Each structure stands twice: as structure tokens, then as C-alpha cells.
Amino acid sequence: QLQLQESGPGLVKPSETVSLTCAVSGGSISSGRYYWGWIRQTPGKGLEWIGSIYYSGSTYYNPSLKSRVTISADTSKNEFSLKLTSVTAADTAVYYCSRMKTTVTPIFSWGQGTLVTVSS
Amino acid sequence: DIQMTQSPSTLSASVGDRVTITCRANQSISTWLAWYQQKPGKAPKVLIYKASTLEGGVPPRFSGSGSGTEFTLTISSLQPGDFATYYCQQYDSYPLTFGGGTKVEIK
Fold first, then answer.
1. Which helix H or strand E contains A70, and what residues bound it?
2. To pair with A27 at 20 to 30 A between CA atoms, which of A34, A37, B23, B93?
3. Contact, A88 vs A94, CB < 8 A?
4. Nearest chain B residue (CA) to A37
5. A-contacting residues of B 23-62, CB under 8 Å?
6. pLDDT over 90 at B97, yes or no
7. CA dist A10 → A19, A66, A84, B1, B80 (Å)
8. Could B87 and A96 be called an inter-chain contact, meaning their C-beta atoms sit closer than 8 Å?
9. A55 exposure class (CB count in 10 Å sphere: 0-12, 13-18, 19+)
10. CB neighbours of B56 closer than 8 A, spacing ≥ 6?
11. Which DSSP category does A11 fall into?
12. B62 to chain A, minimum CA–CA distance in Å?
């Protein structure tokens, strides 16, 4: 059974870079059958799709965040990561990793989420 | 980006009530719409996709309808476990976008 587990710092200072990792078990990110993505949830903006990656390395980003986001994958560790640069308080959110069948699809598989707070 | 607007934002109802939530897109998305249920501290869970297809294991009291720009989620008889927040999501085009949510509260 697929499990997605996010990890990362719970607290980040403004202007810094936050790095999150999603460990995948019960499935291989290099299988080529799925895309692996990130979504965040803030009190202000609600649910926001951040981006996704295919095992080949192809990435798809939300244009609203594209200049600050990098999603990468480590197939040897069966995990993928999110880097968000120049964070502000507006980036305070619960970040979820996910598995998707295509780049435009419902999101059937979610991690439990990890809270990132941006504060000095 | 396609904008998704849900109404109402909050809904007070009693067990056994019929509940309807509306989701509107600012351009046609055919039937590329999903509905999610989210409970506090948990990730959203798909209830319905392709506007009206019930996800496996979801009780038949949940139903979805609509196409184009207007969609509804109906709970035919509200049960205690249904008090939650509901979101719509379009997957007609990238980037994926979500509605603002409808919180179903106990009356």
C-alpha cells in the first residue's frame, strides 16, 4: 500500500529557503506510471497546487510559484523533494506530497502533511 | 488559471438533512471536476471525480452533477461523519486549482 511521508523543518526564517522531502513506500517513483507532486494549504489561499515531477525529471510548476520552486527526485532513495526560496509569512502552510496519474488529474494519494511556519 | 468558486462558504445542517454545495468555474471545464472531503488534521480525500463518478468506498449518499461551469455536490442524508470541509478541484487544465471550500457544521 502506498505511503507518502513528508519531512522538513517546521520553522523557517523569512527570506530563507525551505526544503521538504517526501519518502515514498509501497511504490516506486521510477516506475513511470505516476507523477509526484506537492500541494500546500494555507488559511488565506486554501489549497494550492505547487508542482509535480515525472521520474524522467520533467517538472511542471504552478506559474504563480515557478520562480521560487524546484522539485527534484532521487530514485535511489525513492523520494522527491521541494525547495522554495525567499519565503515569507505568506508561505506558512501545511505542505502535502502526492501521487498523480497525470499532470492534470484528481489527487487520490496524499501524504499526511507537514506544517511549515515562516517566522523570525 | 481557472478560478473555482464555491458556495456557501459555511453551511449549518442537522443529521438527516439533504445538503447541496455549488462550485462554479470561470470557464468551461467539461466534467473535469473532483470533490474532496477534508477533516481537521487530515489530507483531503477524493469523493467524486469526473463530476459525477463516485470514488470506490464512498457512500452512495454522496452524489455529484454538472458540466461546463456549474457543478453540485449533494449529500442526500447528512451523517455524523460528514461534518467536514468540502472542496472542488478542476483538472481540465494546468495549473490545477481548487475552490475555497465549504465547511459543513452541525446546526
1. strand A69-74
2. B93
3. no
4. B96
5. 32, 34, 42-46, 49, 55
6. yes
7. 10, 22, 14, 30, 33
8. no
9. middle
10. none
11. E
12. 17
Confirm or reject contact between A47 and chain B (CB < 8 A).
yes
Helix, strand, coil percentages, rounded to 5, for chain B: 5, 50, 50
| Pick from A75, A38, A35, A76: nearest CA to A58 | A35
Give the mutation candidate from A1, A39, A47, A62 for the B interface (greatest B CB count, under 10 A).
A47
If you average pLDDT over every residue of chain A, what do you get?
Answer: 95
Q: Name beta bridge partners: A88.
A: none
Could B1 and A64 be called an inter-chain contact, meaning their C-beta atoms sit closer than 8 Å?
yes
pLDDT digits (tens, 9 = 90+) for B63-89: 999 999 999 999 999 999 999 999 999
CA distances from residue B104 to A65, B21, B93 in whole angstroms, order as listed: 31, 10, 28
Contacts of A103 (CB under 8 A, 6+ apart): A35, A52, A60, B94
Q: Which of the four pLDDT bands, split at 50, 70 and 90, describes residue A32?
A: confident
